[in-house]
Write a structure and sequence with these properties.
about 375 residues, alpha+beta, Thrombin, subunit H, 6-stranded antiparallel barrel, 6-stranded antiparallel beta barrel, 11 helices, 15 strands
């Protein structure tokens, strides 16, 4: 694509002063009125700007609704015309005693009635499609969880007693039960973690718990609500530096059909989920996310999504209630982009991501053994 055409398209977008111009451009794009160069530039803009991508999806639903309404109106006009051409009372008086006339009338008008029936069927299908799409808008469920709902009272009391004894011996303060929870995983060996923004948003304090049950206080380094990502840093003096990370972040896009798995905390113990990548876009065509066929539950939010080679390709974020196994994960390239936007002062030192992993070629069981110490339960207090 020539640079001058691309620059012209982006220049036009940059000088837009109201939403009407954007809506016109979106409509031209959906109707195929843009040149190939303009369409390619616009698709690149959708990939870089989530807000415009969502506007395109919403406008397509709107145009589909208008089309369905127009078809219904056309059908109504045809039915009205047919009704006007048939005098029901006259036919009843003249043809009532003569069934053969009615049969002849049916034979003469069956083509028109068949067309009317076809339009009725088409309208019903269109209306069902619009209503089905409308219902799906409310079925997107983020996967943080309320803690304490699964444990019974005896288990909770036993754990509280163990925590009191353990913490009193170690000199740590005794924590009351957390209100919300999720999953996070290490980005560096010195305590930087990533999770979903919706897991920790508006929290008064946040702790993480490792696979051995040790808890550490963390602070929020940066939040990215538009990507539903948050970068955390373990600030607890009792935290010991982790060993070298066994996995790496993958910037390139993963392929459809690729086998993937996740490790998270939908309960107090880590749970493995396995499946495959079913779409390169997320909910409503969101280009920031993948759709994967993995069963997940509240508490899986923020967990790593890995491929068979041990590359982190995404962060589990949500699921769709009305589609069995439809889970969404934010692409890992946006973790790296998020790290790149954090100021040097906030980081204290440059965050480094591992350039190679040691999981490639290992069995799934061995891979889990390697990564479980780097996946944490998030506990939110507010």
């Amino acid at each position: 694509m020539p640079a001058t055409i691309k620059e012209a398209v982006f220049s036009k977008l940059m000088v837009m002063r109201n939403d009407i111009e954007l809506e016109n451009l979106i409509e031209d794009y959906l109707n195929g009125k843009l040149t190939p160069a303009e369409a390619q530039a616009f698709e690149q803009l959708r990939a870089n700007d989530q807000a415009i991508d969502h506007r395109v999806v919403a406008h397509k639903v709107f145009l589909d609704s208008i089309t369905a309404y127009a078809q219904q109106s056309s059908l109504q006009e045809q039915l009205d015309h047919i009704h006007e051409t048939i005098d029901v009372d006259t036919l009843s008086r003249k043809l009532g005693p003569h069934p053969s006339y009615i049969v002849n009338l049916w034979k003469q008008n069956k083509s028109a009635l068949a067309i009317a029936a076809s339009f009725i069927l088409l309208t019903c299908v269109s209306i069902y499609s619009v209503l089905h799409n409308t219902r799906q808008i409310g079925s997107y469920e983020m996967l943080s969880r309320k803690l304490g709902k699964i444990e019974n009272k005896q288990d909770s009391q036993n754990k509280l007693i163990r925590n009191i004894v353990s913490n009193s011996q170690s000199g740590k303060p005794v924590l009351s039960p957390a209100k919300y929870g999720g999953t996070g995983f290490a980005l560096t060996t010195n305590g930087y973690l990533v999770t979903n923004n919706h897991v920790i948003d508006k929290a008064d304090s946040i702790y993480v718990q490792d696979s051995k049950g040790a808890s550490y206080k963390v602070k929020v380094v940066a939040q990215f609500p538009e990507r539903d990502l948050a970068i955390l840093k373990i600030s607890d003096n009792s935290f010991s530096r982790l060993s070298s990370l066994p996995y790496k972040l993958k910037r390139n896009s993963a392929g459809m059909g690729e086998h993937v798995y996740t490790l998270g905390y939908p309960k107090d113990d880590a749970v493995l989920g396995e499946g495959y990548l079913s779409s390169k876009t997320g909910y409503g065509g969101d280009t920031l996310a993948y759709q994967v066929d993995i069963r997940v539950n509240p508490g899986n939010s923020g967990g790593p999504l890995l491929d068979n080679q041990g590359n982190v390709i995404g962060v589990i974020s949500a699921r769709e209630n009305e589609m069995d196994g439809a889970t969404y994960a934010i692409k890992s390239k946006y973790i790296m982009d998020a790290l790149g936007t954090i100021s040097q002062d906030s980081l204290g030192k440059i965050v480094k991501t591992k350039k190679r992993n040691v999981l490639q070629g290992l069995t799934r069981t061995r891979q889990i053994e390697k990564i479980q110490d780097y996946v944490f339960m998030i506990k939110v207090y507010n």
